Recover the amino acids of this structure.
């Protein structure tokens, strides 16, 4: 399986529409800038969609699930079997993202991109396994080149299905016991930081557990150090199948001109990977929420990004992005539905 598709550039943002959207914001019945970040969001959405009536009614959510060999090192507060159990919970509508998707009117699919579970019979689960969990990256590379290509392609496939459903926004989520360890290792390698600066509690480790987790990740980074020569090699050596799928999805979304709303720490590590592979992906990403994981702030600095909300969330699944979705929807509605000064017969700002 080839990764050549990664070389395709992102769709360009419509600069004419962008300028017109900025002008429209200046004509709406409000003091300029008074809606703050909502104005910036609206202008970007208008340019992305090529219209002064942007809309986000059709939203596609994909949760990518996979297991991690690094779980053998005891880096999670939960057993690895929880990954497969949560895939079933997604399928039966009992997970947080399931509830959020229903209440937001968003379509939800689950892609098993590499769990150890047999999920083929579960409703709404797409089986696209790159493997039965990654290898333990404390001992060896997490995945082969073929597995990496397969996982990236799984993300691309999810975007293709979103486009088939005429989605106006893509949200990617993840599930996989020990995946904060993989995301931390990826972030450390991309940012040149130690695990003690990035590692957090994940599923609920105490201070001693976080310290031990950081030591294990630092040892793994030392093991692979000379091989971590590119974003793709970082992903292959210390990443996860669902992290690769998310990175592939963000790149594919940008290539298709489909806005994507990024979730928390793990999804943002995938977003940074996507930008290091294809920098023009940045134009098509929004960031949903400020993860409570301590490494998140470092990712936002590297991405030059600002999350929409901060509610101390750290669940994953795409849940924080889903909670932030109404903000994007309201920004779009304000842009398209507010009256201009001329339309309302309201006097505009004086020159003095």
């Amino acid at each position: 399986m080839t990764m050549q598709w990664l070389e395709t550039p992102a769709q360009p943002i419509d600069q004419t529409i962008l300028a017109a959207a900025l002008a429209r914001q200046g004509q709406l019945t409000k003091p300029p800038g008074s809606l703050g970040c909502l104005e910036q969001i609206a202008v970007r959405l208008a340019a992305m969609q090529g219209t002064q009536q942007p809309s986000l009614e059709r939203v596609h959510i994909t949760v990518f699930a996979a297991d991690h060999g690094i779980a053998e090192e005891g880096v999670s507060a939960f057993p690895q079997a929880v990954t497969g159990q949560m895939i079933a919970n997604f399928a039966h509508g009992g997970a947080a993202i399931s509830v959020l998707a229903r209440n937001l009117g968003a379509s939800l699919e689950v892609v098993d991109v590499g769990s150890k579970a047999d999920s083929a019979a579960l409703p709404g689960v797409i089986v696209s396994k790159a493997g039965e969990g990654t290898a333990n990256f404390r001992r060896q590379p997490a995945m082969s080149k073929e597995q990496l290509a397969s996982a990236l392609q799984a993300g691309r496939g999810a975007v293709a299905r979103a486009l088939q459903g005429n989605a106006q926004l893509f949200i990617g989520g993840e599930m996989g016991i020990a995946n904060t360890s993989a995301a931390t290792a990826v972030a450390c390698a991309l940012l040149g930081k130690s695990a003690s600066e990035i590692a957090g509690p994940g599923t609920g480790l105490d201070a001693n557990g976080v310290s031990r987790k950081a030591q294990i990740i630092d040892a793994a980074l030392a093991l692979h150090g000379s091989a971590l020569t590119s974003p793709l090699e970082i992903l292959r050596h210390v990443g996860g199948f669902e992290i690769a799928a998310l990175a592939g999805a963000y790149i594919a979304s940008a290539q298709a001109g489909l806005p994507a709303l990024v979730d928390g720490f793990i999804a943002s590590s995938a977003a940074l990977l996507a930008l290091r592979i294809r920098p023009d992906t940045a134009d098509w990403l929004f960031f949903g929420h400020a993860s409570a994981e301590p490494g998140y702030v470092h990712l936002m600095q590297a991405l030059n990004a600002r999350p929409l909300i901060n509610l101390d969330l750290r669940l994953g699944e795409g849940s924080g992005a889903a909670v932030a979705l109404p903000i994007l929807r309201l920004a779009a509605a304000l842009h398209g539905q507010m009256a201009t000064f001329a339309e309302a017969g309201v006097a505009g700002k004086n020159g003095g």
